[in-house]
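Collaborator request log, item 7. Partner lab (contact: R.S.) asked for a structural prediction of DNA primase to inform their binding assays.
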Amino acid sequence: MRLHEDTIEKIRKSLDIVDIVGDYVQLRKQGRNFVGLCPFHSERTPSFSVSPDKQLYHCFGCGAGGNLFTFIMEIEGMSFSEAAQFLADKAKIDLGPSLSKTSAGGDARDQSKKQLSEGMDLLTKFYHYLLATAKFGKSGMNYLNDRGFTKDMIERFQLGYAIDSWDTATSLLERRQVNLGQMEKAGLIGKRGFDNKYFDRFRNRIIFPIFNPRGQTVAFAGRTLGDEKPKYLNTPESSLFHKGKILYGYHLARQSIRKSNQAVLLEGYVDVIRAHQAGVTNSVASMGTSLTEEQAAMLFRAAETIIICYDSDTAGIEASFRAAAMFQESNKIVKIAKMPEGFDPDDYIRKFGGERFKSDVIGASQTLMTFKMDYFRRKRNLVDEGDRLLYIEEVLKEISTLKRAVERDHYLRLLAEEFSISLDALKRQEMQMYKAAKRQEERRDRERPVILNRPDRIAPAYEMAERRLLARMMRSRKVTEHVRDMLGGTFAIELHQALAAYLYAYYEEGNPPDEGLFIQRLEDPGLQQKAVELSMIPMSDQAEEREIEDCIHQVIKHSKAAVIADKEEERKQAEQSGHYQLAAQLVSEIIGIKKQLNAHNAEQE
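Returned to partner:
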């Protein structure tokens, strides 16, 4: 679909980019802008800047940049039409009358995803209705009541029940004219091989809808009421659902995470629901024991402190160790909540209550280093001298990776006291490891691929002049008209030439000096990104006449120097070919251009 420009502008002006980006990135104010960790590449120190004045964002590390629409398209993997609909919903703007068809392929993909989303939403409401209705949901509700789930949690997480029938959900979808083939592909229904008839995949199961960060259903998990196998039946990945990019409960926990600046990471659906019921509303789950980089990045951006609270069994401890390793390279505070042996969060809260879970488990979380010391200790027989030395070696290696000297000293003292070892000896060995780790880190930094968008060089004067002129032109019609009269298309860099041409046309159409509006009109992603980068150049609000003239002079100077160089090359070739008359003509032209350049230089002085 394509929106009218006035509708796009209405959406853009109705929302604040800081609020939109702030749902995905933890931002802090710095001067006039807000900064945070870039959501589009891995980094330890913030290089991502959001300008509330310009309603733009730009990463000075990877070069990503744009406005509200491009941000949502990138972060959510949406098409422009999907991003527009998403933002319009937030702004409470109806897009109905403003839509017109665009390319058939793009519209078909959007339509297919929309139909799938509507089908999942329909089933979410249907399964929830069945659970809440005594006639159909009695067995499902009895199961949840026996497990201690409150009515509030059942509503909050939209839990449902699939009755023990082969065609109840399928018949509903058919009556509502939902594409059954599409529902089968998404794993919501099945298809029999012998007669090609569709049937319900979920039967006699508690239904856990899985929501994306926007609160839309993207998948389902169904838990059996008894001991049937499999215990959990899950829908596969689809155009809407990528398991590694979703944290269960994140849509409900997001505000609490931001308010507390802390996220609690659990393993499964039931643990999250139980934790929310206990008041730990900043809890989410990785839906299994394998945390992905994408899931970790969501937590990176949302909170300063991450508490990992997995099961106390061997698999849970190993998963905690792996998850902790993903957070170690960041500047975040990582803690491990230690569950008593034989308990998961659900069991613990049911037995001891929510207050004890908050105080004795979450509140008593270990530091990451303490957890690692316990982890290594489990793997060694410390009575054995060889194992004891290996344990000390492992712990020293971990201590050497700590950034702060105070932390390293603290854990070295604990180690010295535990094994009655000389603190000085431990410090000497740890220092050797620390220096080796630093050298290895420096080597990795040197070998790390260069991000092309990062300015690794000092740009020549003409390039800097073109950049500043374009930045000023986006802010001023008067400057643009003056540059057009003096330079026209005389920009050495092709992207700059294109931006200048678009700016001339933009003002010719009577548009105001609005960087956000201009950037929105650019359809080429490369031009849009470059325009954002130039827009974020720090400069005074008002352009000095001298600044503009100096920049114009640098561009003209470079342009004429380039022409002279080309003509000198032509002259050499003419002389070598025996075309002396042409060579003499070129010499005359070169002298004329040099005179013009000298005269221009004299004017500048």
